[in-house]
Amino acid sequence: MEPAFRNTTKWRTHEMVLVTLLILFAIAGKFWPIFEHPGIELDDSWGREFKDANRPFGYYWNVLFPHCWTLILLYGGYLWLNFYIVPRFAQVNLSEGIILEGAQGKALKGAVWGLVNAVVLIVLLGIAFGSAYTYTNAQFEVGGITDAMMVGMGLRQVTGWVIGFVIYALIRERAIRRMQQDVLIHASQISLVNQVSSFFLVYFAIGSAIVNFEVIDIHEFYDFWFFLLPQALLAAVTNLYWVFPLKGEGKFWRWPIVWRLLIANGGWGIPFVYYGINDAHDQPAVYMSLWAVNLLVTVPISWLIFRQWKDKILQMKGLETALGQSEADLQFLRAQINPHFLFNALNTIYGTALQEEAGRTAEGVQRLGDMMRFMLHENHLQRIPMSKEIDYLKNYIALQELRTEASDNIHIETIIDEACPDFSIAPMLLIPFVENAFKHGISLRERSWIRLRLHCEGKRIQYEIRNSIHPRREGDPEKGKSGIGLKNVLHRLKLLYPEKHEFYMHQDEKEFFVQLTIQP
Predict the structure, then answer these.
(1) Distance CA 90, CA 111 (A)
(2) From the centroid of its chain, how far is CA 449?
């Protein structure tokens, strides 16, 4: 992806602006009473709990300074997490196991260093918050409350905040990375994320201003504005764009819709209840209440909205799929009409012509012609008979075997079930894996193998390829590059066969293995 597209997702920017505004409003809110009340009146209105506990009170020492320094430290911790700690966790990819060498080894070491920094941050903020509590809590040194207890309280609170933010930030980074890999394909998702994040930027900024400057002197407003309503709004958005579009023309009460409804309308309440309800005993009851309210109120309201906006929402998702397919097809054609492959094919035919004047040369020319004919006439169709895809696959393998059959160290084994039912399949969907196998698995100098198995069972196509692996020489222009069309075909599978395909890929020092199952 070109660098110009990197800033299309504004989630991080909106989040940064929001956190900055929340901190500024919170600090300004502590200065605000100084301008509203004279000194004695200020102490009387804010220091009643201290006087009841027979503790001296001063607004500056017991409210303003402790709150301001904890807010400033909290903002510094947010920056530390966002720009230093989280990026080190986000670089780790454990899908292929723990590897202590190369780029992944470096990423793991960075994650360990990030963990050390996270622990240091928790300790520093915990001590700072505990110290602040000794000034702001009227019950300090009353009833056995000590410095150690205050620090322990601060450590517990900060630990929850840090762990929660790291989990959220990793989810955020994964989502942003996925969208920015293909800006065109995920254009509607990026637009939706930007709209939601900008809405909550304004929404929480307004709520923070109202609370900190005491525009509305209602305690329940805080819980309603910051905890009850946001999770209901997020649940409604999830219903509109993730759950309800699955209905189509079928029945509403189907398991794929039901489990999404339960997750969408229950999942958002977890962080809001955990961070909004201080009493752990009340959290389960409050959470179940929010879940029930969402199912009984948010779901019906969002369903009515969906019915009004149904055409627009489905049209947007349809345009995204069509745009993604067009982009994928364009990239695929660019990958398939590969001068490097055509040059090798022509060299193969030329070399064969020098050895014999008829049979093998004619066979090579015929197979290459069949392949080019397929690309010109079938490749633009959305679906083709499975038999045509198999023919293209066999022609490609036979043409490559002309080049490799002279070597005793190369073994190519193909088991292709040609008695498949009358399946139709997207064209050029299977060939990239074979191209990748020949590109990376064949060496004219070392023992090499490719084993291909294509089998139709019931309503499924099962496709497996194994190939040897050979390290490329230094200076090889193909070194470090992925297989032809491999990344692209994965995008096509997601677009054309959502929830109807399974893909597994594994690589070790000797072999590369791909397994694909499709329900056409």
Answers:
(1) 8
(2) 36
Alpha helix positions (H), 445-502 = 486-496
Report the distance separating Cα 389 and Cα 379, nearest Å: 10
How far apart, in whole angstroms, are the C-alpha atoms of residue 96 and residue 80?
29
Each residue of 88-129: pLDDT tens digit?
Answer: 888 876 655 555 555 667 778 888 898 999 999 999 998 888
Chain segment 441-473, per-residue pLDDT in tens: 888 778 898 999 998 887 889 999 999 987 766
CB atoms within 10 A of CB 44: 13
Tell me the pLDDT tens digit for each residue of 133-159. Answer: 777 776 655 445 556 667 777 888 889
Measured distance CA(253)–CA(311) in Å, rounded: 21
Residues in the chain: 520
Domain 337-518 falls in which CATH fold?
Answer: Heat Shock Protein 90 (3.30.565)
Q: CA-to-CA distance for 425 and 386, rounded, in angstroms?
A: 6
Residues 6+ apart with CB under 8 A from 456: 386, 417, 419, 420, 421, 423, 462
- 441 close to 465: Cβ distance less than 8 angstroms: no
For the chain, where do the domains classified as CATH 3.30.565.10 start and end?
Answer: 337-518
Say what the pTM is.
Answer: 0.59
**Distance between CA atoms of residues 98 and 100, nearest Å:** 7
User: Could you tell me which residues come within 8 angstroms of residue 104 by beta carbon, excluding any fewer than 6 positions away?
Assistant: 92, 93, 96
DSSP 3-state helix, strand, coil percentages of the chain (rounded to 5)? Answer: 65, 10, 25
Per-residue HEC secondary structure of 174-228 comes to HHHHHHHHCCCCCHHHHHHHHHHHHHHHHHHHHHHHHHHCCCCCCHHHHHHHHHH
